[in-house]
Each structure stands twice: as C-alpha cells, then as structure tokens.
Amino acid sequence: MNTTRIVQELRQGNLVVTPTDTIYGILADATNIAAVRRVKIAKHRNANKPLLLLVDSLDMLYTYTGALSPLEQEIIENYLPGKLTILLPKNSKVSNHITGESSLVGIRIPKHSEIIGIIREVGHPLASTSANLAGEPPITNISQLSSELLQHISYVEDTGTINSEPSSLIKVKDNKVVILRSGTVANQILKRYN
User: Fold this and answer.
1) What's the pTM value of the predicted model, to 2 decimals?
2) Is 81 within 8 Å of 109 (Cβ atoms)?
3) Contact 88/68 with Cβ under 8 angstroms?
4) N- or C-end of the chain: fewer Cβ atoms within 10 A?
C-alpha cells in the first residue's frame, strides 16, 4: 500500500478508499468534520447514519470512549484487534457527525498492520465505512466502485479482490451481548458470554 500518499491525503482532509482486514472501505480523518460530512455525501448516506471509528490500539480506543462495563472491557481486550466492531459509550471527543447523534460509537482495531500504521501517522482515529453507495453490497474489488462515489475520492488503493466479509457488529445491553451484524467473531462471543 502507498501509505505515504494515503496519510498525506487524510491529513489534507481528503477521502481515500483502501482495503482493510475486512472489505474495501472509505477512510477519513475522524476529527475533520468536513471530511466526515463528505463521506456521507459520497455514499448518498443519511446524515443521521453513523460511521465507525478505526483506532490503532486499546489506548486510543479508551481515549474516545466513556466508562465501559467489565464485560465490554473483557470483550475488547480478548477480541481486538480483529473483525469486530463494538458499540461503546462515546465521550465528548467523538463528534455527533460520526455517531448520528447516538451516545454510542462503533469502534474497531483492525488486524491490518498498514492500516494501523496509517492511523498512527495521522494521529487520530479514522472514520470508516464500506466503499459502496448506501443500500448497495459491500465492495470486494475496486472495479465495483460507483462512479458517483469516486467523484468524492482523492485516492484509491487497489490490492485486488478481498475474500472476506464485513466485521461483526455487537453491543452490550443489560450485561448481555446483542448481535447487530453476525459473523464468525460475533458467534464466538455469543457462545462465550450469553
């Protein structure tokens, strides 16, 4: 991956499409509100629909979240980095433009050394979402990218076809794990904790 170019574009407030450890995603600096808004415009996405945060470590995760329950802490320490997005209480560092006014933020540490390196270089979490128009299937090859979406993207990193699935999505409610989007990791967590 051309990480130098990607970091440069993100620092300038631009949007990029890159592979992650799951599927092709749009990335933007999560602390740049104008860039976050452009992600939703590019996807034709309702402004109230949330984006997730990609962070480089548990330390960064804790910097952007509020008080966590023992179960939430145990899950993130056992299953991140990995193909798991977990909804956690956000703190004031996370803009409502990311969460769509929700008090929860979807957050993930990707198991992808180059993406981790990019986050570290940018110095902030990255706002992320799948690189498809709202309502369309996730992108596993850049040939599937919409020409409408590409008008808003400054750089595309092509590493061929990704044979994966989106991350599992869960939250903890009343000390129980609730699966919002299934997948291998979500099923493992459900068996272990519910």
Assistant:
1) 0.94
2) yes
3) yes
4) C
